[in-house]
Design a protein that fits this description.
Number of helices: 2
Strand order of the largest sheet: 1-2-3
Strand content: 25-35%
Helix content: 40-55%
Number of domains: 2
Structural class: alpha+beta
Largest sheet: 3 strands, antiparallel
Shape: elongated
Number of strands: 3
Order of helices and strands: EEEHH
Length: 80
């Protein structure tokens, strides 16, 4: 992990396309601005972790679940 000290108004560059600027500091809060291309997703870590966990849970579908969905589809075709 790289640890840097920055003051309000100072920036950090990540590659050619991303700039992180310290906008202000108040007590234990730091307000930052991130300038990056729209193609780069920027999320708070807690939101990123929540999405990652939901994706893992969604991918844990069992074969019985898929078979059940296929049976529902066949039942729908039968009733039409």
């Amino acid at each position: 992990m790289l640890i840097l000290t920055r003051k309000a108004g100072e920036s950090i560059k990540i590659g050619d396309d991303v700039t992180i600027e310290v906008l202000s500091m108040s007590g234990s809060n730091v307000k930052i601005g991130i300038d990056a291309p729209k193609s780069i997703n920027i999320l708070r870590k807690e939101l990123y972790d929540m999405i990652k966990n939901e994706n893992i849970n969604a991918s844990a579908v069992s074969l019985d679940d898929i078979t059940g969905l296929n049976n529902l589809n066949e039942l729908k075709k039968f009733n039409e």
